[in-house]
Amino acid sequence: MTYYLARRMLSFALTLFAVSIVVFAAMNVLPGDPALTILGLDATEDALAALREQLGLNAPLVTRYFLWVGHALTGDFGVSHSFGVPVSELIGERLPLTVSLALSGIVLTVVLALALGVGAAANHGKAGDWGVMFLSQIGIAIPAFWLSMLLVILFAVKLRWFPPGGFPGWGEPLDAMRSLVLPTVALALVQSAVLARVTRSSVLEVMRQDYVRTARATGFSHRRVLWLHVLPNALVPIVTIVGMQFAALVTGTIVIENVFYLPGLGRLIFQSISNRDLPTVQALVMLFAAIVVTANFVVDLVYVLIDPRLKSRA
Amino acid sequence: MIEMQSFSVSFGAGEALREASFVITPGDRLGVVGESGSGKTMLGLSLMGMAPDAAKLSGKLRIDGRDMSGASERDWQALRARKVAMIFQEPMAALNPLRRVGETLCEPLRQHLGLSRSAARARAFELFEEVGIPDPEARLEQFPHQLSGGQRQRVLIALALACDPELLIADEPTTALDANVALRITDLLVRLAKHRNMALIFVSHDLAAVARATAEIMVMYGGEIVERGPTRAVLDAPAHPYTRGLLEARPSPQSKARGPDGKRPRLTTIPGVVPQLHDLPAGCRFSGRCPVELPVCAAVRAPVCAVAADRTAACHALVSEGGA
């Protein structure tokens, strides 16, 4: 168990290290001169050289990498070129929105997918099963941004239940939550379509196991057998997919926040890429990668919680 | 008391069980033998109301005076574990791998008998002692993968006994176990049945185990009960050609002796294989493989003949012998 944990932690740290190298290298081999971007095409050569010196762009690559990592570890990601404020401040302001969006998205995904997937498996081969399979096929085929527009047209423009976009700030919690409903649904519907299918096939697989027959032979109702005996055993593949989907949801916020004009990290990364704002982009890509790697780490821990056999083997 | 009368289970045109009739009362120990595909397991599942959904059932099945032919799933749920319980062939796969065996055992005690958490725990402890699991306190806390095959089968027996059933169906309970463990499990089942005055149906293809465990025997072939009677009498002097074939196919101590050519004699086998469900012969199911087959056998069902006061066999050859 300790060995398993230690190995997971090590792989967690190594992955982040590798990601940091890739991110740093990618940003620095990209064509385009940040100094030129900041000062504009009319800038004199002297002014550009002075700014490069000030930005630390003249130091050797390796030195700059370690300076960047060293500062990043203390929470200092440098100053944004385009906003002129510390990157950590930019992130701090926008993080709560993106985190709320991703978390509510994954919760809605899991709830919808478990209900539909287990329901479909319990009615295997009947109308309910076919219905869920058909809907999920449509869900998988629809791009999230297009679904967002449909949701806006129906629920914001026609029915006026929710705002079409924008964010009033956390000062008004109720309105803030209302403005997150449509983006959450847009994020979750597509993901839950995928997860419902995984849930259905995993549950069907477990329903064939001998211990499920034992549970039935012990006189328990279908419902009890399904939720207390079958589902826990079907969770391992489901949790694996949920981990991958959380990553997809986090990156999905880039599109969704732009469609709904939400001031989150997704919108920030989009803006800073357009502005060639290197420190901000580097910090954000690193942050997104860290979130994804952390999600996978959590999945590895959940496996052990689900299955006692892993605990004694690990 | 459990009574089957002309009970059949069919899948389309194929009959997995053909007009089975028998009665079992508390304390009876009935062996059911036959090759794979003979309908033994289907017989057991039918008594639990657990025949596959695709199966069509006909005939009468009474459990404790209640007519269960056409009973709903809910009716069956009320009987399972409390009146009729079953243990299965593969103890390795028959326990939920994510639960401590104590939790598994306490679940029916709490759900069906309404015991409190601590009362269920105490009862689980007693059940583990009854089925001969050493150090029950520690075992209750373990997961199935931490137990041996024999111990898992004991856990499953304890689970089946949890609600004091009147009938325990053991479907090949020892097939997956080592020979000496199998012997102990067989003896345990007999002891429990006697001690609790519980009926036992012992399904197996191991004739030695059946001889050890049961007082009465039913021999099945192709979904049909071909011979039945006291276990000892049937195995000593089989009346049906299929039963004779089964007994001859057993290795015996003599068969180990080498012949004059220095080779061991080959084991006798029944020629041919059990036919598939959809092309069973219309008459006697054994026709086509039978060494004493008569012209009538393939087309006409064999009548059930009384071989002795307490024995029957379904065979045309017995009729012509009797008539001659």
From TrEMBL, chain A:
The chain crosses the membrane at residues 99-122, 134-157, 177-198, 234-261, 281-306. It is a multi-pass membrane protein. GO terms for cellular component: plasma membrane. InterPro entries: BPD_transp_1_N, MetI-like, MetI-like_sf. Residues 95-299 form the ABC transmembrane type-1 domain. The keyword Iron does not apply. This is ABC transporter permease. Keywords: Cell membrane, Membrane, Transmembrane, Transmembrane helix, Transport. It is found in: Cell membrane. GO terms for molecular function: dipeptide transmembrane transporter activity. Pfam families: BPD_transp_1, BPD_transp_1_N. It comes from the Bacteria. Belongs to the binding-protein-dependent transport system permease family. SUPFAM superfamilies: MetI-like.
TrEMBL record, chain B:
InterPro entries: AAA+_ATPase, ABC_Ni/Peptide_Import, ABC_transporter-like_ATP-bd, ABC_transporter-like_CS, Oligopep_ABC_C, P-loop_NTPase. PROSITE patterns: ABC_TRANSPORTER_1 (PS00211), ABC_TRANSPORTER_2 (PS50893). Pfam families: ABC_tran, oligo_HPY. It is a peripheral membrane protein. GO terms for molecular function: ATP binding; ATP hydrolysis activity. Residues 2-247 form the ABC transporter domain. This is ABC transporter ATP-binding protein. The lineage of its organism: Bacteria, Pseudomonadati, Pseudomonadota, Alphaproteobacteria, Rhodobacterales.
